[in-house]
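[step 3/7] fold_predict: job queued, chain A
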Amino acid sequence: MRNEFTGTGLLTSLAFKRERIKLPIWLAVITTLVTSVGVAMNDLMPTQEEVMNQIVARAESPAIRLFDIPAAGISVESAMLMRSSILIGIIIVLVSMYTIIRHTRQNEETGRTEMINSTAVGKYANLTTGLIITVIFNILVGMAIAAAMLLNDFQMEGALLTGFAFAGMGIAFAGITSIAVQLSQTSSGAAGMVTITFGVFFLISSIGDVLGEFNRNTFAVESHWLAWLSPWGWFGQVYAFHDNNWWVLWLFCLLFFTTVLIAFYLIGKRDVGMGLFPAKKGPAFASKMLLSPIGLIWRLQRRLVFSWLIVMFIFGMVIGGIGNEIRDMISGLNNNQLLEMFGGNPNVVSSILASFVAFLATFVAVYYVLTLLRLRHDEADGYMEGVLATAVSRVRLFMSQVICASLGLGAILFFLALGAGITAKVSTGDYMFLTMIETTFYQAPAILAIGGFTILMIGIVPKGAIAVSIAAVLFSLISGPMFGTMLGLPDSIQNISPFTHLTVDQSGDLDWNPALGLVLIAIIFSAVGILRFRRRNLTF
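[step 4/7] structure written:
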């Protein structure tokens, strides 16, 4: 006789073996990142006065509070968390999400679950295995973060609380993912649901912080109550190294257990391989558009494109909406300060908004790479073989994927700029749409270069293309101008990122020569990758 958890131990042992390389690498990456940021912060702000100036400047700006967690007193530790939490948090959430998906929905898609369930395995065993692996990983991440902070001589209680808060957020999103894999019939659909959920939570938290107030007596930002509606907002409310609110960790636990109970309940409401939101049956007669590879690829990618498009449009609207706040902020500066900070640029508000929009536009590189890697997934899963058995050539199929991905990239960047332009006009009364368009599309050459590298990897090292390409896009974001300077990375490392070469001077003028160079690199990489793909065997 078996219960619903029978076989969990054996499956967990197998899962540890599958994850013996991936998760330790991510653990090492996060630990190295935290250690590097700690060292860089100590070097950048050697005196208490510099620490205070940095924190006050960032905490008093509603625009910067959009991306920072709330300030929590005057300390290097607080400054570090304000600037780096978003990057560390995104990595932890993504790793937790994909670990759960890999051991649940992906196993169902590949038929592994059906084979496993033919043995003495309970119906909750697969999900429980994924949760055990993910929870243990997050606990180790939390301990590693705390250890990395202690190595930088940070205060012990705050370091431990920070580590457990990051772990709590990863565990909470593991619970949210466990529901998504019950709702969606595909791995990509589940990943899209969790990504959108994280984006909404981040947006709610950011609005709560922007609407909050900076208290000059405590040097802490008192967030609006909206921040409490988001797990990302809870992370900021622990006020590590200041109030040290340990009780907030219970909220992560409560969310995790609630979502897991819901997920277990939903497992009994569906069949293996199916989702509660099943894929819709197509019409009786297919559209003529599906007779072409570009029509088929668009049909498969359109949900991902629309998801990114909506999220970026909303983020753009939020950024544009704080234009009036920025105008109020700079109104207190005298002419000398304006000249020193902005080089005499007469359009300071639009320049600041454009810099925030450009920062968001760099993350669209993740969409572009994931969309191109769909080719590699189709090749490994055998779907591509069926398409190539028709009159479609390899080059035509590859080019169709590149064209669809590039059109999606252009649409996402356009709607990001449109959202920012609309609310900036409402907020400030100034027309900034063209500035936003120019800024967002200025990031496109760097994104295309990263995409070209992905195409090259698919052509020459198909089995390692996914891992190498994802590592490349993350490295480009981390070592780029937004985070590379903060981490204190040497120029030789920062120059590897294509985003580093897209420069804007203080007057707001863009240098298009490096952009043309990046486009040329993208074309060369893509051509070599496609030609190599045309000549090699399909690899499963």
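[step 5/7] annotate
The radius of gyration is 24 Å.
Strands lie at 213-215, 220-222.
exit 0
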